[in-house]
Amino acid sequence: MILIFYLFLVRRDKSFLPKLNFITLSLTIFVSVYALSVLFSTEIQRSIWGNYSRGSIGLLNLLYFFVLFLVASGVFKSKSDWDLLLKFSLLVGVFTALVAEVFYGYFRQFSDSKRIFGTLGNPALLAGYLLIHSFLSLWFFEEAFNKKKKIFYALLFLFLSLSVILTAVRGAVLGLAVGFIIFLFLYIKKYYQPKYLAAVFLVLLLIFVGFFTVRNIEFLRSNFILGRLSDISFSQGSTISNRLEVWKMAINGFKDMPLLGWGPENFVLVYYKNFNPSLFINSFKENVFDRAHNVFLEILATTGIFGLTAYLLVWFSIFYATMKKDLFFFTPLFAGLFIHNLFIFDSLSSLLLFFLVTAFISRNEDLNFSWLTRKSFLFPVFIIFLLLIFILQFGFGNPALEQLKVKRFASATLDKTVIAEELDEELKMEILSSLDKVSKILAKDPDNLIWYIFSSALNNQAGKLIDKEFYTKSEEVIKKAQSQFPGHQQIYYQLAIAKAGQGNFEEAVKISDLAISLNPKSDESYWQKAMLYIDFGNFNTGYKLIMEAEKDYPWILSFTDTMKMIDIEIRRENYKRVAYLYEHYAIRRFRPKNAQLHASLAATYAKIGEKEKAIEYAQKAAELDPAYADDSEIFIKSLR
Predict the structure, then answer these.
(1) What digits encode the pLDDT tens for the residues 514-540?
(2) Given its phi and psi angles, is residue 95 left (phi above 0), alpha (psi -120 to 50 degrees) or beta?
(3) With the CA atoms of 492, 497, 499 and 505 taken in that order, what torsion angle do they form, in degrees rounded to the nearest 10?
(4) Nearest-angstrom CA–CA distance, 425 and 431
(5) How many CA atoms, within 13 angstroms, populate the side-chain half-sphere of residue 175?
(6) Cβ proximity of 69 and 63 under 8 Å
(7) Whole-prediction pTM
(8) Cα–Cα distances in angstroms (integers) from residue 42 to residues 276, 286, 303, 435, 452, in the given order
(9) H helices within 295-424, ranges in order?
(10) Environment class of residue 251 by beta-carbon count within 10 Å: exposed (0-12), middle (13-18) or buried (19+)?
């Protein structure tokens, strides 16, 4: 709609056309190459729509951002207009950071994360968004002449920087540090004598060396945020080791399709093809990389050498523009974001700011392309551009949104089947409906492993609850997946369940052992083998395997796994084990401030006759949440 009104505006007044400068041309080239890559994409619908669950881009969103750039750079003429727009964005950024920090304690009741993530739902997405706002506050700090305003923007920078640090996203923190050093260099050079530069850099060097000298002391290691930021390990299974492995996959993907790549948003296909079973140690649940965690390598793999060249041209044009005196202090912002992109990925929120700020700095750039500025040339171009967006938006279905809905529906169905004691008609219809939806998606997207896993898992649960014939169907799905994705442990987990369901338990155990052999250091494989025994009635052996594995892999149980184990033990009426799982895992390890868990533990201790502990945890529940006070008082009186 904005583009339509904008077309009427520029038709009447050509002065509102965007400036056709180096930045505008480089962005136009990049968007054009991106669109060309979509035409030759291995999965064109994903390249158009992106992936909603990760906030990824896709051609349609990129076109919207490009329209935003064109309209903003054409409509906002004066510096006062831009100041108002960027200050409003800064206000939103501060509010977002405030929400993330203030409500962090509340969110911790529902998440295992020890990092802030706010309303964006992911620390990495929040970090990139706040990183840009941190440097915007420095821009306004430098622009301010009033001492009180300088103090105000300095405090904003400190607050936003702290928020970036609390995300514990190392790429963003490194970008923040590099950008801030560049800012100090420019600021001191502009306002102070050169001798101060040497003193400042000496202090920064001492801080840097000191941090890495003491990074292994207990104080730093015991704090999750500081420990994560100071953890630089190349050992197998570490984050850095995993990233390097994924970067190798990106380069291999580029070698397969060097010119225009696999198509935007198709890095997950590169990952599946080049999957290495030894990639993960204690974090197997981060099982699918749909991002290379390096924007430049991901663009290389998905849009080829042409795409990467065009993307680097965009960055060059931006840095070239910031060489002008009045834009010097935007260099730290883009330098910090450049560093951030070397280790993480873009998101819709960070790209929104990127295109806005880029439009701002492009307002001072002007190159003389008179043949491009003629109304007779530009208006048809804008009309074609508008038609392209209209066709993409309304001419196709939205498979990304459809897939997201099916994925959530199937996940919810699987969660219900895990705890279901018996099958009712409603659950049966839901299982069959999920299977039908997943099967249709799988037929359209046969190169995506996740749909094979969903299909086999749903068939296995249907085999348990509806008819054993579904176990056979699960095996058929897995056999197809094995031919396409050899070496993926998840395939073997589902195949083992299917074999056990068909009565071949010995073969199921052998398959579980094979999954373990693919990567003996992956805790998930031990968990899956243990659950195979538990799900098919051999509780003692299953628990023994978990206890043995926990000696080497203390994080083998997630919160979800713990609650599943508690549900199993409640059905077995083994309340001592329930109390142990609640106290040592659910509460101490995952949710120390969750009042409901404390109340449940109090009720469990009452069942096994341990009244003092029951009273203790009932009182604690009331302390954590006053809403439990009346019920706790009644409960305690009943025990006394």
Answers:
(1) 988 888 877 788 888 988 888 887 878
(2) alpha
(3) 110
(4) 10
(5) 29
(6) no
(7) 0.78
(8) 22, 24, 11, 26, 18
(9) 295-321, 331-341, 348-361, 375-394, 399-419
(10) middle
